[in-house]
Design goal:
- By secondary structure, the protein is an all-alpha fold.
- Among the domains are: about 70 residues, Serine Threonine Protein Phosphatase 5, Tetratricopeptide repeat, CATH 1.25.40; about 120 residues, Tetratricopeptide repeat domain (Serine Threonine Protein Phosphatase 5, Tetratricopeptide repeat).
- Helices cover about 80% and strands about 0% of the residues.
- The longest helix has 19 residues.
- It starts with a helix and ends with a helix.
Length: about 325
Amino acid sequence: MIMITIIGNYKNAEKLYSKLLDRVRESGEENSAQTISIMSDLAGTYCRQGKYDKAELMIKNCLERKDVLLGADEEYFALTNNLANIYESQGKYNEAEVLYKQFFDAKKVVLGENHPYVLGIMFSLSSVYNSQGRILEAQTLLKDTFDRQKVAIGEDHFDTLNTMNSLAATYDHQGQFSKAEGLYKKCFEKRKKALGLNHPETLGTMCNLAKTYLNLNQISEASTLYTECFEKMKLVIGDSHPYTFHCMAGLASTYLSNKRYEDAEDLFKKCLALQKVRFGLNHPETQNTIYNLSAVYMMQGKHAEAKSLKSNP
């Protein structure tokens, strides 16, 4: 089951963990450490599929049984760290930042700043800074993390590649598109070799590279990559996964650049409908799609639709 999760078959992993959890509960071991471990793994499969509300409830359910974890500080810290990850994915950045800083301060004293676990927390905290628009702080922390990870666990390690991908994103946000392109290409090739082309993380980097092509005004390259990525994501992780939303919005933007306004409108509408269900109206990514769809309406002279969208999305 663990291997299924690693290779990206999260739907099957969810089914297997759910069955295992039912069996353990039927045996009367509802509050055992084993049950909590299975619940945590199940929450992980929810996260990988973008089911963040389910994941949050599952992790909080685990933490409510913290008396079972007495004497097992590592498990308790891991669960709380997972909750911080979920908060971040839900756009609850302030809550996530507070938890990550608590972990970092506690763990660097015990393990040291070069320990892989501590480096993982540094990466997570930088991700929150990035989402909050604190790009320079994120970039500084990511550079430090990346340099330490290359020494501690190697450049081809899964965690190091996550940091490489995120560091590229900070360059992209600052308009340093050539730097972003170089890092994304390197990360994409390494992930493709290690995980395969159809792994969600590989597809995520493919989508990011397509976005950089779009920012470089290489519309044809961006459109080709977005189209391939979107088709693969729909098969691998489904329409309702956050990674798919990013790709969908990017592909719609290439339509917009090519003045295919009706196609752009249709895709932004689909993206918005899915995001409202998954994230709710107030999530930053939902709001960004509302802005983009409104812009498409205005370009087509649909002023009434644009006005209506802003007042009643």
